[in-house]
Amino acid sequence: EVQLVESGGNLVQPGGSLRLSCAGTGFKFETHWMTWVRQAPGKGLEWVANINQDGNEKYYMNSGKGRFTISRDNAKSSLYLQMNSLRAEDTAVYYCARRGAYYDVLTGGFYYYYGVDVWGQGTTVTVSS
Amino acid sequence: SYELTQPPSVSVSPGQTARITCSGDEVSKQYTCWYQQKPGQAPLLVMFKDSERPSGIPERFSGSNSGTVVTLTISGVQAEDEADYYCQSADSSGNHWMFGGGTKLTVL
Questions:
Q1: Quick check: A116 contacting B, CB < 8 Å?
Q2: Minimum Cα–Cα distance from A5: chain B residue
Q3: In this structure, are residues B22 and B3 in contact, taking their beta carbons and an 8 Å threshold?
Q4: pLDDT tens column, B90-108
C-alpha cells in the first residue's frame, strides 16, 4: 500500500523554527517529485513547495521563499520541510504529497502531471505565543 | 499573479447533476486537477489532466475544459459526494502550482 506519514508538527512561537518530516512507503520514493501543501484552519488548500527526484530542483510559494526549505533523503524515503521565521499565518495542517504520474499506452512511457495522487494525513503546525 | 476562481458553493438534489467550475487566465495552457475533501480527511484526487479519472473514482465524475473554464461534473449525485472540491493547476513554467478557493458541494 502506498503511504505517506508526516510528523514534526507542533506549537511554536512566532519567529521560531520547525522541521517537518514525511516517510514514504509502498512505492519507489526516489522516482517521484514530492510536494508540501498546507491548509489553514477553516481555509482552502495552499501549495507550499515542490522538489524533484534528486533534490536539485526546488520551487516555493512566494511567502515561503527565504523562510522554507524543502529537501529529501531518498535513502530513507523521506521528505522534509524546514520552516524558519514562522508567523501566525503559517498556522495550518501541512500535507506531504506525491506528484502524480500516468502511463501513456501510445508511447509506453510514464509522464508526470501538475498535481498529486497520494496525500499523507497531515501534521499540524500552530504558531502562537 | 495566477489565480483560479471557483464558486463558493453548489447545491443539488440527489440524482441530479452538479457542475463545479474553475476559471483562470491560463487554464487553457496547463492541465487542471480536481480534489475532493471531506471534513477531517486529506484531499482525494478525483480528476487529472482536465478529464482523466484516477483508478477507483466512480464514472459519475467527469471533467472538461472549454478554454478559460474547466468544469468538474458529477452526474447522478449521491449523498456521499457532499464535500469540498478544489481545482489545482500550474503557471506557464509548471513549477509553481496554485489551488482554487474551493467549492462546497451540498447534497440537499
A1: yes
A2: B42
A3: no
A4: 998 999 999 999 999 999 9
